[in-house]
Write a structure and sequence with these properties.
This protein has about 450 residues and is α/β, with parallel strands linked by helices. The chain has helices at about 15-30, 50-70, 80-85, 90-95, 110-120, 165-170, 175-190, 215-220, 240-250, 265-270, 280-290, 310-325, 350-375, and strands at about 5-10, 30-35, 40-45, 75-80, 100, 125, 145-150, 155, 175, 195-200, 205, 210-215, 230-235, 255-260, 295-305, 330-335, 380-390, 395-400, 405, 415-425, 430-435. The structure holds 5'-deoxyadenosine.
Length: about 450
């Protein structure tokens, strides 16, 4: 009987892909997926550390697994990814039944670590600075048969004062454009139609040997037959070039959507965050995007309650929301992260104040989204059908500009691009009617 594994993924899209790499490695080495943690011989927690809450979530989960581990002496528990990298052997003190600790990017050696962890408790594979070649992954067990995430770079060379990522994922390494294109051509030949390019600052990508920029890479991917949609995350405003905008305008395969994290609307706070741009220069980029001949949806990330953020700074963030009219906003309470520059600053905005500001941001943005989504009524749009919907209607898909559309239709549409007419909306999604072209 093959040993069975169960992977629980926390955090970002990069972690989702890392879990697919881990699964690919375990499957290739003779293991098989389990239906749930109770049925598994190996439980892998692939973790996040971007905010303290993410770290505490893993400790809570480890607490829940304690009983299972004491009942099942042969169970292997692996804690991998960013939280494992950050917390290191502290995890073993709190959860001595953990057999494997591994940082991100250890997917390709996971089965070795697990075997080692089974024999000589514990096995430790924390990240020491890796070579670009380590980004090449031979086996990826993809969860979705039409959309594939592809790593183009890993790590980050920026040093935003609040951010743990350069510490957990290291300095930026980029893959060769030839390797990326080969992987995507292979995916296209297997029927994948949507490619999701991943990198911590995805648009800083540059293949210096082949002289391929991020925009150049996008154009080459758009030319691959069978690839209908290309998305990417997350770009940094300072690496947003005219060349990139031009590529987005002329290549219909590149989705007309961009996630451009701003973090704050106050130049003073942006400076303290070491974001490398002012409000003014960020707004110049936004205005270029908004005046492009192709309409492009814009979303962003906001942190409230960064050290020393005053009511006035916060009002600047609200004014920014009003000015840009984002299609969606992810907002977070500032969480001090060890080893970051901001960790040394006084975390002087109270939790209550942060909570209040977060609620105000979310309320304000909700009104913007209601107004924005109302303008979709009556439009006919292309939707890539992704899943069964959670609500009463049966299916859910996404438009090129990343709006979720719920509609009724047969399950066989999943994975296809279809036409819908928009007949309703809520702050976070649209409701559509499927236009069945076969009738
Ligand atoms: N506290 C709160 N939010 C954070 N983010 C990153 N680091 C922190 C932190 N220390 C947010 C940023 C980033 C998103 C992925 O998470 O908004 O863009």
């Amino acid at each position: 009987m093959p040993k069975k594994y169960f992977i629980e993924t926390f955090g970002c899209q990069m972690n989702d892909l890392d879990s697919e790499k881990i699964a690919g490695n375990l499957l290739h080495n003779g293991m098989a997926p389990a239906d749930g943690p109770e049925q598994a011989d190996i439980i892998v927690l692939n973790t996040c550390s971007v905010r303290d809450k993410a770290v505490q979530k893993v400790y809570t989960r480890l607490g829940e697994l304690k009983q299972l581990a004491s009942r099942r002496k042969d169970l292997v528990v692996a804690v991998v990814g960013c939280m494992a990298q950050l917390e290191g052997e502290k995890i073993l003190k709190r959860a001595p039944y953990v057999n494997v600790l591994a940082g991100p990017q250890k997917g390709a050696v996971m089965s070795d670590l697990i075997e080692q962890g089974r024999r000589e408790h514990p096995a430790i594979g924390l990240r020491s600075d890796e070579i670009p070649e380590s980004l090449e992954t031979q086996y990826i067990l993809r969860q979705n048969p039409w959309r594939a995430s592809v790593t183009i770079s890993e790590g980050c060379n920026r040093n935003c004062s609040f951010c743990i990522v350069p510490i957990t994922r290291g300095q930026e390494r980029t893959r060769k454009s030839t390797d990326i294109l080969r992987e995507i051509k292979d995916l296209a030949s297997k029927g994948y139609i949507e490619i999701f390019l991943l990198g911590q600052t995805v648009n800083s990508y540059m293949d210096r040997v082949e002289q391929v920029s991020f925009a150049g890479l996008l154009r080459r991917i758009a030319a691959i037959q069978g690839i209908k949609r290309i998305r990417f995350t997350s770009p940094h405003p300072n690496d947003f070039t005219d060349e990139l905008l031009e590529a987005m305008v002329v290549c219909p395969q590149i989705c007309n959507q961009i996630h451009l994290p701003v973090q704050s609307g106050s130049t003073r706070i942006l400076r303290a965050m070491r974001r490398g741009y002012s409000l003014e220069s960020y707004l110049k980029i936004i205005s270029k995007i908004q005046s492009a001949s192709r309409s492009i949806a814009i979303s962003t990330d906001i942190i409230v309650g960064f050290p020393s953020e005053t009511e006035e700074d916060f009002q600047d963030t609200l004014s920014l929301l009003d000015e840009v009219q984002y299609d969606s906003v992810f907002s977070f309470k500032y969480s001090p992260r060890p080893y970051t520059a901001a960790f040394n600053l006084l975390d002087d905005v109270s939790d209550e104040e942060k909570k209040g500001r977060l609620e105000i941001v979310q309320k304000r943005q909700k009104m913007i989204q209601i107004r924005k989504n109302s303008t979709y009524l009556g439009l006919r749009l292309e939707v890539l059908v992704e899943d069964k919907a959670r609500s009463r209607v049966s299916l859910a898909g996404r438009t090129s500009d990343n709006k979720i559309v719920n509609f009724d239709g047969p399950e066989k549409l999943i994975g296809q691009i279809i036409q819908v007419e928009i007949a309703g909306f809520s702050p976070n999604s649209l409701k559509g009617i499927w236009i069945d072209s076969s009738v």
